[in-house]
Write a structure and sequence with these properties.
The chain is mostly helical and 311 residues long. It contains 13 helices and no strands.
């Protein structure tokens, strides 16, 4: 297990390093001058020079790359330079301000998805080939087909504009403000998890030990839940772990629809203005989060199934 963990850790570090290098070089391949986007047309030459120095653009490319890794080592991830007259806070502090909002949205989306997907998948598996199975498949298909940019505004129109039951856009700190965004995020994930639960449970219910449990006279619910669902959840939980990492990277569309702060919104704004330090810092944090969650999922899988350790 130690060798397996070290091998996975090494590949994870290499992945994060590779992503960081790609983002650094791709940003410099984008045409245009980032100073023009950030400083504006009214900036004086002195202000432009100060902004270039803040972003490190006054140095050759190898020196900029070395500066990037120095900022990673000191934990600041660079400095935000939106205005040559303003403060230059560390990029890490900007990410730390919005990361809790993204994390709570990711957790909320996972909870909603599991609450919807597990019962739907179990019912579809137990009643496979029946109209109930077909209806569950239609619900799953609708969940993954309806676009987020449509579901979000519809929920806002119904529960905020018409019924006034829940907070609307821009009220991220209000009570129950997380409910509607979590439903939007969880709806898409629910469809995938429901289909995975169904297919995995159908396969498990055909195993010999499940037939033995039924032959012993155990209640159908005990057979399905204790002997079937417990063994069918391993691939489902793997998907949950992988998707949780993706959600932590930022549900950008949902954050935009509900005017929520988050790392996805921060990254999109930085890309639009070509704020190099913020883009590089956000992508690095996203890569670390996604790779870290995937690493934890791999290790958990290795603990659960010794055969995985030899792969």
């Amino acid at each position: 297990m130690v060798v397996f963990a070290l091998r996975r850790l090494g590949s994870s570090i290499a992945s994060v390093l590779g992503v960081s290098l790609l983002v650094f070089f791709f940003l410099h391949l984008v045409p245009g001058d980032p100073v023009d986007n950030l400083a504006g047309g009214e900036a004086t030459p002195e202000q432009r020079a100060e902004l270039e120095a803040c972003m490190g653009l006054d140095k050759p490319l190898p020196a900029q790359l070395g500066r990037f890794f120095v900022h990673i080592a000191d934990g600041s991830l660079g400095r935000q330079c939106p205005d040559p007259k303003g403060d230059k806070p560390p990029v890490l502090s900007l990410i730390a301000e919005v990361m809790p909002y993204t994390a709570e949205l990711a957790v909320g989306g996972i909870v909603v998805a599991l609450l919807l997907a597990l019962p739907l998948g179990v019912v579809a598996a137990v009643r496979r080939g029946t109209p109930v199975d077909a209806a569950a498949s239609m619900v799953s298909l609708a969940g993954i087909s309806l676009p987020t940019m449509w579901i979000g505004p519809m929920l806002i129109f119904i529960f905020y504009v018409k019924l006034a039951w829940l907070p609307g856009p821009g009220e991220a700190d209000a009570p129950l403000a997380l409910l509607l965004p979590s439903i939007v995020v969880g709806t898409h994930l629910m469809a995938m998890l429901a289909r995975m639960t169904r297919s995995s449970l159908v396969e498990v219910l055909g195993e010999d030990y499940v037939r033995t449990a039924r032959a012993k006279g155990l209640a159908p619910a005990v057979v399905v839940v204790k002997h079937g669902l417990r063994n069918a959840l391993l691939p489902v939980l793997t998907i949950v772990g992988l998707q949780f990492g993706s959600l932590l990277a930022g549900a950008t569309i949902t954050e935009s629809v509900f005017a929520r702060p988050g790392i996805g919104t921060l990254l999109v704004d930085a890309i639009r203005t070509r704020n190099y330090p913020v883009v590089q810092g956000c992508v690095l944090v996203v890569a670390v989060v996604v790779v870290g969650v995937n690493l934890a999922t791999d290790l958990a899988y290795g603990l659960a199934d010794p055969r995985i350790r030899r792969s």
